Amino acid sequence: MFKFNIVNNDYEITKAPVLNLKEKLLEKGHIIDEKNPEYVFIIGGDGTFLKAVRLYQEKLDLVNFVPFKFGGIGFYTNKNDLKQIDMIIDKLEKNDLFNLTYQLLEVENGPTTHYVVNEIRILNEKKPLYVKVFINDEYLETFHGTGLVVSTSTGSTGYIKSAGGSVVLPKNSGLYQIQELVPVSTNRFRTLNSPIILNDSYYVKLEFETEQEVLICDTHVTEVHGTILNIKVSNKKIKVLSHKDPKSMSEINILREIFIIDKKEVE
Asked: Does the record bear Transferase in its keywords (predicted)?
């Protein structure tokens, strides 16, 4: 017997599989506990996965996530198949699922610590930001422009890819990257304007000229408290359970399926 909760997307079509999963778990004697679940079942796409992680920010050491893809892009949620729900529940009860982990970024924002799966974005679309960028306390540059994005390796196929960042294949390798967003570039002011890839021996400090800039941690929108953000690879990791052997899941194939169309397929 275990405690569980279900986090799902808001689509009408999702209601039936959510109800089916809930009924199966209750019939087996498991208990719904929204505050302190041992297992969080996720039905949806990657946005739903990010929402679930956000909900349990303070309990990441205690929670195991069991995602099912039922929506859009599913880098995180393509680990289990709803058509095999009975088998997956049975394996879960026998502690016979594969254990996966995902790296997190840890962001110190005044008195608050955010744990980030994909990326953080610091934005000001009304006027250009001035941000001093330090790496391991060594001054790099003063960025002047719309914003900055800092991404995990697993988040490298998300927002930062669209912003010109690199796709980082090694996961849980301690790698993360910083990318500038719409920098001012003139004969009088110029920054690096290139992705910087770091590992977990590096930490980043961002020092802002003004307070209350917009800070987006995955899907959560907040403000920068004060004028300094400290960013590093966290010691915490997300724990995910899958019935699929991770050795059988090709990251190259996932990239091809989601992003790549060969010439012969277009003609």
From this structure: yes
